[in-house]
Every structure is written in structure tokens, then in C-alpha cells.
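Contributing new complexes? Match this layout with magnesium ion.
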Amino acid sequence: MKKENDKKNIATNYSQNPDAAKPPDDEKKPEEAGQKAIFPPHAKTVSSKSGSLKAPQIEEEFLSNPKIVENYSFLQEIGIFKHIDNLNREIRNYKSLLSGGLDIFNRTSIDEIMDATVWQISDHFLPSFLAFLWKPIQNKDEITIKAYKNYKPVDINIKMDSISPFEAFFQQYPKPINFDLLAFELKNDEAVKPLEEVRSEIIIPILGPFGLYGIIVVGRKILEDEYTQEELVFLQQLMAFVSQAIKNHLHYEHSLRDVKTGLYNHGFFMTRINEEVARTKRTGYTSSLIVMDVDKFKNFNDNFGHMAGDRVLESIAFMIKQTVRTEDIPSRFGGEEFTVLLPSTEKGTAWAVAERLRTSIAGMKVPWEPPLPQVTISLGLYTFDRHSEISAEEILSRADEALYLSKERGRNRTTIWGSGLLFRIQQKSKKTTEAVPKLQFLEQQP
Ligand code: GH3
Ligand code: MG
Ligand code: MG
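Output block (do not edit by hand):
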């Protein structure tokens, strides 16, 4: 009779006993054991908060095996059922991790990756905040910070403008780490203070071939209790996916960008303008292209050195980024030449954008010692639609023609390529084999 009861209860007993998966007493948290928390080597010490899964069918068959029933007491004594319970929990955790990881990998922007991460973490516990700090431009120190509280993006005051002070440490120790231990290892360097002020708990590095790309900062738990080993293991494993996904995305982003200025590079610009030409043909939209060239840029190099010249290019790029809309495509075409592709933008608006770019650059102050002369640019503008019937290369060369008229006419100005030009060039070309003085036909006003 006892055996019958045993048989009935086996499947439920071991898996519903909340104590079944408690770690043995000697498996203390690292902090308790005198060492600061770095995460445990595997998930076997996890404790259950949410109860156990039902034993799968195969397990039920195993449990109803007469030999098991016969030896129930012995098997229980040696901890077989606890062990199975732990394994079940591990399987469940890995399944959830795998689906969470895949979800994160399928995201197509860093913002989406961060949003998905926040939701994945929030399924398990609620940190007081979660912050992502990363370098959008590979070889530049400047960082972007995005933080979340209660699943929502918030402005968080982490007074940090570089992650470089952490670089050497994380190169040596490329793993998530408890904040206190990081602070200790960095000898409470000034750099850790901003993280201390916001009460950080765990710091996770994002590393790649170009060094430290960013860090993810997890705040203490809302209720100020300690993270359980289960949560820490989960975090460590999930973050391996997150940091890989962010790293892949940054690699992709960097491959589209010019290293010096952070603007899109020539290759990406050519891809986008070809797409835009196809789009205008398909949809009937009007789009515009602005090309710009720095006036007498050689003088900056010759009189103040190449570094000063580079600083001028960076300042211009910054101003361009500030001036255009998010849907525009600002690129460094090469050397001291820039382009802005303006999708769905008519001539008049494009002219206004070009003039805004010109005047804001002419008014900017480039930080350099000794002070540099005023920087100016010349611009050319071409507007196209489905009736233009020309290739991306031809669009570029027309915008270029307009730009060189701006140069000829004294620089620091914008010229629009006018529709009359093509006709007049053709007319002239018929009559003469001489080089066509084409620039003089360009319009100057919209
Ligand atoms: P213009 O008004 O006619 O455009 O005169 P310019 O001096 O700007 O034109 P030019 O084509 O003679 O000079 C462009 C210079 O830009 C030559 C080249 O060495 C310099 N340059 C190109 N790329 C870079 C760069 O990345 N950094 C620096 N510092 N200089 C660059
Ligand atoms: Mg040039
Ligand atoms: Mg120039």
C-alpha cells in the first residue's frame, strides 16, 4: 500500500517541494564566502521562486517504472529527485534564455535591442535602473547613454563622458562584474564615481576587436535586496547575447560611417542615392541633393597643420548633423567634400536647408589654438523627380557643376542647377567642339 502511495506521489513530491532545489549549505554566495561577487560558474545553485514545471511525459514514464517505485526511498535519500528537479529548472531557464536571446538577436537597431533587453530582464526582476553607455563612433571617446526605469526610457544623470578608464580592466577581465569589485580593482578612481552616485550594482562590458565598445550598468534591485544567484546567472547569460548583438550592430553601423566625422561614408551614400532615384521614379516624390566643399581648405592644413584641418572637418560634420532631419543622409563624400541627400524635399525647402548649412558653418567657432580664420563652404543643389530620367552619377555631377559655379562666383554661396542648363548645353554643344562654359547658365535662386 505504501508503495502505491509512493508511486502516486513521486511525480509530484519532488517537483513541488519548494525546498527541493535549495543549494547545499556549503554553496554560499561568493560575497558570503568572503570573496566579492563575480558570478557562479553554472546554474546548479539556483533557487526556485516560481515553483516547478510539471514533469514531462518521458519523466513520468521513468517515475512509474516499477523498479523506481520499488527503490523510491533509496533514490530520494541519495537526492536523485532533487537532482532531476534542478535539471528541469535548468532546462526551463535555458529555453527561456534561448528564446530571449533570439528575440534580442532579431532586433534591427541598438534602440530595439535595448528595449528587448529591458523587457527580458523585467520578466525576472526589476532593477532600479538599467543604463547602456556606448561609443557610436568607433575611434572617438564620446559616448551615448540610454537608461530605463520601470521599463521606460528616462534621463539619468550619469556624469560620464568616456568609458576609456575602464578599457584596460575589461580587456584583462572581459566579464560582468559586481560594481564594488570594479571600484576596488580600479582603486576607486574618479571614473567610477558617477556609477557609484547612481547606485550601480553590476557592470557588463561590451567588447570587440576595437576594444571596449560600451558598458551596460544594472542598478540595485528596487527593493534593495540582493540579487539571487539565479538572477545573477540569468543576467550574465542574457547579457552575453545582448553585448554580442550590440557589438554586431555597432560593427554594421561603423561599416557605413566615415571614421573621422561619423557621417555616412561614400559607399553608403552611393547606395542610398541609387535607392532614392529608384524611389522617386516609383512614387513621384521630388528629392534633392546638396553637395558641399570647404573653401580654401588647403590653407587650414598649410597654415595650422593637418590636425587643425581635421578639427575643421569634424566641426563641419557636427554642424551638418545638427542641421539636417533624421531622414536625411549626410555623408562625407571624400576629403573636404560633403553631401546631404534630402528625400521627399522640393527645391525651395532644399535651398533653405542649404542656406542654413552655409550660414551656420560660416558662423561656427572651431575650437583651436591659435584661433582659426572663419570656415566657409560652397554648395551646389540639384532636385530630381520621376521626370528627371537621369542616373545617380548624373545627379551628382549636376550638383557638382552647381557647386563649382558657387566657387567661381566667389565661394561661400549656394547655387541651384537649373533645368535650363541641359537644354542650353546641348544647344551649345551642337555648335561648338570647345569646352562648354556651362556654369554660367546655372540658376542662382530657386
Ligand atoms: P577650394 O576653395 O577651391 O575648394 O580650395 P581648397 O583648398 O579647399 O581645395 P583643394 O582641393 O586644393 O584642397 C583640398 C585639401 O583638402 C587638399 C587635401 O590635402 C585636404 N584634405 C583632404 N582630406 C583631408 C583630411 O581628411 N584631413 C585634412 N586635414 N586635410 C584633408
Ligand atoms: Mg574639394
Ligand atoms: Mg575645397
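Reviewers usually confirm one structural detail per submission. For this one: The radius of gyration is 31 Å.
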